[in-house]
Amino acid sequence: MGLGRKTRRTILERKAQYFGTAALIALSCLLYTLFNQLSFNTDAGTAAFVTDYAQEDASFVTAAPLSGISGLEARFGLLIEQGESFDDTVSEGRTLRVFAEMSKVNKYAVIKGRPLSAENDLLLDPAYAKTNGISIGDTITIRGSSFTVAGFMSLPHYIYPLKKESDLLNAPGSFGIAVIGKDKYKSFETESHFYSVKVMGNAGTNADAKLEELKKHLKQQGTVILKWMNTDENPRVTLSTSKMDSMKTIGSIMPVAILLLTCVLTAVVMQRMLARESVIIGTLYAQGYRRGEITRHYLCYPLFVALGGAVAGTVLGLAALRPMLDYMTGYFNIPIASVSLSITHLAVSLLLPLGLLLVSVYAAIRRKLVHTPIELLRGGGEQRKTGFLERRAKLDRLKFAAKFKIREQLRSVPRSLFLLLGVALATMLLLLGFTMKSSIDYMLKDSYESTYKYRYEYMFNSMRQGAPPNGGETFSAAPFASGPGSPINFTAYGVISDTHSISLNNRNGKPIAFDRVVITKPLAERLNVKPDDTIKMVSKLDSRLYSIKVDEVADSYVGELLFMPLESFNELLGFPAESYLGVWSQQPLNIPDHELLSSSTAAEMRQAFDSLTQPMQAMLGVISLLSFMIGLIVIYVVTSLIIEENKDNISLMKVLGYRKKEVYSLILNSSAVTVVLGFLLGVPLLVFSLKAMYRSLADSAGIVMPVKMSVVYVGVGFVIIYLIFELSKAMSKKKIAAIPMAEALKSRAE
Length: 750
What we know:
The protein is of the alpha+beta class. It contains 22 helices and 20 strands.
């Protein structure tokens, strides 16, 4: 009973150390629970969605309607369904892509509301409806026909609704998708069609081989394929997958990093307490307490801290799960009927902190308890030893204040290491949002806006020849891979040699002419090629292997792209001379909708980036708060340890007549250099981590982003970190002021 009261009393006396540790554990468990339970639900929802609603394995567009679909299905073991869609300009800068209901492949899933029943029913994607203030039961007009919004839905091939495959961000304020009944769709004059293919069979079926057989057969039948895309290359699917995978990574790495940091902190705190209480431990031995009883007593400290922090963090994570899940299902159109909990993740969240802290503290306790009671009563069985770093440091020529501060850091390497890593982690979190914003700003202003000079883009649903519409500049595009089965996919553009719609520069900043083959820097890096090298590439349209010599590498991050003269493009792929698939222009062109596969404007990319501003600001706020909490807890706890260890010195300084300001400077400023070093360590660690994350994003979703870190943001980050340090110092001054001068005399008497 007495030992139990001592545990409570000690924790309450040193609240900063123990409650700070519990707060870090709660934070790590909150993040672990939230991200991993979120991933568990989205993974389960996506898997069910893909299976139950027949997500396509590939889609393609042909120059002429396909015949004999039932024969192709039986021959190759496929489901093939013709899909139809058109883009309706609802208002200036706002487009709605309307799909005809499909019955075999890519069936819609109702997220809220009811399925299509009446002729004029319509289903919308929830993000578009929310952004534009549309509710169930509202009436909207499409091409002169009125429709009633029956509900909100999701399509398996439009989980992340992008207008174009080359887009990086969805803009629900300017683009959305809708589904109407087939019979009603026929009343609109449109010739825009595509084919969705799903491979039938069990899990062992080689879907890629069957798709290649189909593609080869169509080619032999003389079918001209204008566009082909496998689902694993469709950014409307892969982008959501890659972002969810990133969420899993964050949910695994960040909480564990915080937890390991907490273990270091707990071990340091317990070592200091055991050293301070060595006489008490010796007395307990002398009174008949066994080693196991004393061990269990000191294990109660990490037990209470870990259990309290783990339970609080897990409960908070579960409380935030439903709102976060609602946000995710609005961001990615994934129907999730109910929230499920992973027992495994719950157990890990509750037991991992407990296990790690108990193991780390148990090791420290056992090292202390190997001494005899007499040794413990004499001060712990150990004499004060000068560490290697302290012995090697040449401090004789320095002033007393400088020597005191340096020795204070060198005498407790674990404590200094904890402070260094803690500040580095806080720095990484703080600069993460700023760096991502800098990278996105660079891509928008220095890449997209400087590269794409056109304002309007029109893609036709069939090959065109002859003069383009007045004011239009012709181009063609085709998808390629770097080899059979290669994960490196890119788009090749055929452009006129004197194009004014695309502008690229080499690494010296000089403009590049388009009378040659040009590839962008990200593609060159992934293929490991340089000018005058020859690359092999496989067409996604006919699976043929081509070889082409690279003449120039453009210093641009607009994507993994290849540009070549339009004449060479048509000759390479066997297209008719002077044919093209699209036009770029500076002003809107009068092209009938039924002739278009898609249309877009350069302003839509700006709108997509602008739509990211609000969630980006929210993310910056959350991350900044998180880094502030970690930094404050780490610095404050370390400062408390320094004060605790220097009680005698502080008391003696007061006896000797040191002013408060001098005492504060000696004790509280001793960690300033370590804080600065932690910040300097966090910057390169963040750059390294982001490069790895961006490489993973490029591999999984084909999005290439440079790591751009603004000097201004780095400066702001340093100011914030140092302000946290100053706040911690201000909070600790009361502790120093409360230490009486008699403390030194009491210590000497003992």
